[in-house]
Structures are given as C-alpha cells and as structure tokens.
Amino acid sequence: MESKILIVDDEAHIRLLLERTLLDFEDEGVEILTADNGGDALEIIKAKKPALVFLDIMMPEMNGFDVCNAVKNELGLEDVYIVMLTAKGQEYDKRRGEEVGADIYMTKPFDPDEIYDKTEEVLGL
Amino acid sequence: VDDYDAWPGRSPDISYGVVRAIVGVPLTHSTSTRQPGPQVGGVIGLAFDTESGQTFGNEEVELLSRFAQLAAIALDNARLYASAQQAREVAEAANQAKSDFLASVSHELRTPLTSVLGFAKISQRSLETKLLPKIQADDPRTKRDIRHVRENIDIIVTEGERLTTLINDVLDLAKIEAGKVEWSMQPLAIAEVIERAVAATASLVEQKDLALIKDITTDLPEVIGDQDQLIQVVINLISNAVKFTDQGSVTCRARQVNREIVVSVIDTGPGIAEADQLKVFEKFKQVGDTLTGKPEGTGLGLPICKEIVERHGGRIWVESEPGQGSTFSFTLPGQETEVETRLATRPVDLAELVKQLKAHVVNAAPTSVDHQKNVLVVDDEALVRKLLGQALGEAGYRVREAEDGQEALDQIKYQKPDLVILDVLMPGLSGFDVAAILKNNPQTMDIPIIILTIVEDEGRGYRLGVDRYLCKPINTELLLREMEGLLAQNTTPKTVLIVDKDAAIVEMLAKVLQGQGYKVSQALSSDTFIKMAVSVKSGLILVNAMFAEQSDTVRKLRFEQGLENVVMLFYQ
User: Fold this and answer.
1) How far apart are CA A22 and CA B122, in angstroms?
2) CB-based contact B122 A20, cutoff 8 Å
C-alpha cells in the first residue's frame, strides 16, 4: 500500500487526535505525514503527493483556503482529496471552500468515526 | 422690575440708562438626570428701553410665562430625545460587540472541544474494540471498574456533544439577532419540511419507543420561507416533544387556518404549567421540576425557533395543561405572502390609512372621558415613566408603572388597565412582544395600546394590532388627545366597510382594523357595496381608489342613496 495521508493543523492536539484516529491505517502501511503550517503543507504535498489531506483553515500566515487553492488550481493536483476542517460553522467558509476546490468540508468538533469512514472511502480500503 | 437702574440685581455692565423695565421668566424642566424635581434650565426675558417709557403688566408676564413653558417642554423633549437616541446607539453598539464576541468565543471554544470530544471517542472505541476483549474480568471489582470507565467516557462524550450543541445554538441565535443570517426565501411545501424534520428525528423517536404521527392536510398552499431554517424549527419542536415524553405519541400536524398555515407538534408528555408557558421561549429558561430530572438541552432551542418563525412573519406559542401534554404551534403566512408581493407593487400605506381613520373617528366621537381611568406606563427608563406619570396624573388619570415587558404583563394580569402606553426597546420582552401577547389574548385584546418609542416601525406596530403609534420625543398634548379619543372610542366600537375587488387586500385591511377595535364589514363588488353601505350604515367606508374610479357606485351612493354624510376614504 503506497497511500499517504497528510494532516495539517497548527494545534498539536488536533494533529495527535487525527493521527491516533488513523492509526489503524498506519498499521496497514499507509504513511501518515503531518505539518503545522500551510507553507510546509504545500511543500509536502508537492513532494509526496498524498492521496488525502486533512486541512485546517485557520492557521497563521498561509491559511487552509490558500493551500487548497494552490494545490487544486495552481499545481493542478486535482487527485489530491482535500478535507477542509474548520472551527467556524459559517456559510461563508463553506462557499469559500467550494470556490477553492475543496472536496468536502467538516466542522469542528468533528467525529473521529466520520474521519475514519471518510479515509476508508477515499483510500478505497 | 419697573426701574432697571434702581434694581440691585442689575448687570454692572449695563449702566447707560437705556433699560427702563425688564421681565424675566425661568425655564423649568424636569428631565435632569442628576437631580430629581423641577430644575431651572434658563431664563427668557424682555426689556423696554427708556425711550419707550413702558413697563410690563400682568398680561405680558403671563404671556411670557406661557412661552417659557412651551420652551421648557421643547427643551425637555429635545433632551429626552437626545438621551433616548444615545441610549439606542449604545445599545446597538453593545449588541454588535456582543455578537462579534460570541462568534469569536464560539470559534475559540471549538478547538479544545474537538480534542476533548475526539480523544474521548477514540478512547471509547479502542476500549470497546481492542482493550476490553483482552481483559479477563472475573472478579466483581474489575467488572465494576470496567463498567465505571465505560460510563465515565460515555458521560464525557454526551456532555461534550451537549456543549457542542450549546455553542452552535448560541452562535445561531447571535447571528439571527445581529441580522447576519442570509435567509434564502423560496416557495416551499410545508409537507416536505415536516417530512425532512421527521426523517432527521426518526432515530430519536425510536430510542424512546414513541409513535410519531404525521397529520398533514393535503392541498396545503405553498409558503415562502427558508427551507433549512424551517426544518430546524420543526426538528427542535419534535426533539423537545420526544425529550419530555416517556410514553404515548408525538403528532406533527399541519393545517390551513384562514390564510395561515399552522404547524403543530403535539405530545403526550407532562405538560407545562400556565405560568411557565411564556418562559419557555425565553433564553436559558428551562422550566420543569429540577428534582425529578433536569431536562437536557441548551435552553436555546425554542428562542431560536421563535426568532426564525417571527422572521417569517409568523407566531409561535404553546398550549398545554399539566398532565395533558403540550401543543407547540407556529404559523406561517400562507397565501398572505401573495398579498405581500402585491402590496409591494401596490403598497397600502397602513400607517397613513389608520391615521386618517382615527382622525375621523375622533371627530365623530366627542370626548367625554371619565378621567379616573387606569393607565399603565411601560418604559425601562425611569425618567420617561416619571415624566409621563406626572403629565397623566395632572390630566386626571390614575397611573401605574412597569419597567419592563414581563412586569407589565404581570401587572395587567393582576389588574387590567384601561389603556397601556408601551415603549419598544426594553430589556427582555420588547414592546412589540408585549403588544403581540396582549392582542392575542381574548382577555386583554380590547385594552387600547399606544406605542411610544424611538423605533420608527409603524407598520409592524399596526400589524400587531396596536391602536396608536407615537414617536418620541414625547408630545404630551398629542398623547393626551389620543388617549382621550381611544378611551372614548373604546366604549363605542366604530363600523368600517372596506370595498376592494382584491379579496386578499380586504382581508389584510380587515385584520389590521379589527386589531384596532373596529367592526369590519367587507364588499368585493359594486352590488354588495351598495347593499352593505345601505344596510350596515357604516360611519366610515374605505374604498380602493381604482375601484372607485372604475365604477360609478361611489357617486350613486352619495347622491342617490342619501349617504352624503358618510365619510369615505380612498386608498391606492
């Protein structure tokens, strides 16, 4: 299994939560990558081409929308499945997410089970 | 002072011998925020010069005193208006700050909450699927410990989810109150709204083994509304019903009543005491017996429903008797939305119409008022209450005061006043809320209400059925005149005949006028118009101007049927 998953959030605990949620997949050989800011995330996506990215929106400097826009529209990496994670339940965010080409949008607090199911679905496991 | 130069109080700078006589009158006002009682805010005066040689007599002094009085009232009003304006600006700014604060707090709360809830859930999962199966639990203590850990994590998850709902609700309510919600109003079928709400709450209902009954009349007209928001309202009502009902059923009913659609959620739960029925729509006011189990929830579900329903031009209320279950109902304007669209192209100026009507009624009913009438003054500003208390007291009314909407309702329950003067912007229940409650209760709907406010929304006031809508600054003379008119009119209801081909418009006008205490008859065609006009003998006839133009009826009535003395008002 060659799949890679990237977790992007500036909050260490949220990264840890996602990592632990996805532990089963790591046991099966999926590589779990993490980044705590938008810039690093973009570099990792360019270099490693993960199949799935969990992307926080509210991050200092480069936010999730910018990362998503760069990946989907500038780099043309449309196959990278991007799940936007946001603390805001605002309609505006949802629209903005659609504009920059995010695949789906989950509101914090998210349910680990949903993350798990989504991962299974995207990786085709 | 007849001889200015000999007056010890004269100004040392004026010593040219030009002033012969002076007179000065104090401007006394009563709205100082610092000291109670009348204050001298200034002096107006006149002088005769030595050349004229004249002095002031009693008449001039009296005239000047009258001017001083008028000037003082004007100053009072200006001061009051300025302070009310300021209070409103402060309130608006505070409200905006509150909404912004809530939005960012809710955002900041989500991050730690994600960790709390998320880690609890993954711990729960690995406990159930990985750890527990490996533990050989034979001794009772280990069994108990396992049960406790399981329960503890369940509690963290449940409470975390409750906290999430609370944060979402607070944010929703703040957004609605701050006017930041984008409403996507579209024609929709209420049946579908109910279907989807029922589907969303199906699992909830199953958990408690209740029957969920749908009772929807076919052929309900479409309503204009925001589908998602209305689904939310029905979901909230069903979840509440399920939460409080342990056995029996929850019924979701939709009916057309007159031009409105009434949606009701009926449960067989414990019911709500009458005293608590209004409270359930207030924020964070959960009612019920805290000893026998505090209801779970945020205390914001119903206030959100209320905001959403009112935003759609509807009303929400509960009917219940302890032990007999509760029925929560809300209305949506059905075909009336059609009226509104038509009104948009052909607006009837309600405020203007009511003003004209009332002018005629006041003329027609000369004032013979028993001055010992009870008036309830409702205003959160002590100054305004005091000012009105004084003015009305002097005019011979018995005045009682309430400083907010709830207090007003309590007082009215205790002793029914002859008339209510109502401010709009107050903490808690607004004046509009109070007016709606009073005008919807058969026991209080006949109490005349005068809205006295800085909020310029006459249309809303009249739609709620208030009798007069006056704006601050307070014009005491006008207020007294209106009060006399209303109190006189109240004893002799006036008949109005409305004539228009457009049934919807007639219906709407009738509703407004009935709210104002008029007896209304309607005519949709020339023939009925003539018949009604002759038989009902209305003092007043309201005629659509287009209708009047197109038909000869008006002229016929006036000159052939001897109705020259009837007042006819035309509207566009």
Assistant:
1) 10
2) yes
Reading phi first (left if > 0) and then psi (alpha if -120 to 50, else beta), residue B321 is in beta
Which of A14, A109, A112 faces B122 most closely, judged by CB atoms? Answer: A112
Helix axes B503-515, B336-345, angle to 10 degrees: 100
- Contact list, B119 vs chain A (CB under 8 Å): 13, 17, 20
Name every chain A residue with its beta carbon within 8 A of the beta carbon of B120: none
Q: Which residues of B touch A (CB under 8 A)?
A: 107-108, 110-111, 113-119, 121-122, 125, 160, 164, 168, 171, 182
Q: For A9-121, where are the E strands, in sequence order? A: 31-35, 52-56, 81-86, 104-107
| Distance between CA atoms of residues B348 and B571, nearest Å | 7
Query: Is A53 strand, coil or helix?
Result: strand
Q: Do A14 and B111 make contact, defined as CB atoms within 8 angstroms?
A: yes
- Judge contact between B246 and B308, C-beta under 8 A: no
- DSSP three-state, residue B201: helix
CA-to-CA distance for A10 and A8, rounded, in angstroms? 7
Contact assignment for A113 to B121 by CB distance below 8 Å:
yes
* Mode of pairing for the β-strands spanning B495-499 and B449-453: unpaired
CB distance B329 to B255 below 8 Å: no
φ and ψ of B219, to 5 deg: 65, 25
- Between the alpha carbon of residue B435 and those of residues B210, B408, B412, B520, the distances in Å are 38, 10, 12, 21
Residue position matching structure tokens 């609890």: B120
Q: How far is A15 from chain B (nearest CA, A)?
A: 10
Tell me the pLDDT band of B537, cut-offs 50, 70 and 90: low
| Interior angle at CA B517, CA B438 and CA B372, nearest 5 | 75
Which value, in Å, is the radius of gyration of the alpha carbons in chain A? 13
Test the A interface: residue of B99, B109, B114, B161 with most A CBs within 10 Å: B114
CA A58 to chain B, closest CA, distance in angstroms equals 10
Quick check: B111 and A111 CB within 8 A? Answer: no
* Residue B52 φ/ψ, nearest 5 degrees: -70, -30
Q: Which of chain A's residues have a Cβ under 8 Å away from the Cβ of B122?
A: 17, 20-21, 112
How many angstroms separate the first and last alpha carbons of chain B?
Answer: 61
Contact B385, B31 (CB under 8 A): no
Name B61's Cβ contacts closer than 8 Å, sequence gap at least 6: B23, B25
d(CA B103, CA B450): 37
Question: B537: which 2 tokens?
Answer: 């003998």
Model pLDDT for residues B114-168, shown as the tens digit of each residue? 889 989 998 998 888 888 888 877 888 888 888 889 988 988 998 888 888 888 8
CB-CB neighbours of A125 under 10 Å: 12
Q: Which residue has the higher pLDDT, B30 or B167?
A: B167
- pLDDT for the residue B563: 62
The nearest alpha carbon in chain B to A109 belongs to B114
Cβ separation A89–B171 shorter than 8 A:
yes
Q: Which two tokens stand for residue B100?
A: 């912004």
Determine whether the interchain pair B122/A21 forms a contact, defined as Cβ–Cβ distance below 8 Å.
Answer: yes
pLDDT, tens digit (0-9, with 9 covering 90-100), for B450-509: 998 877 777 788 778 888 888 877 778 888 888 888 887 654 456 777 887 777 777 777
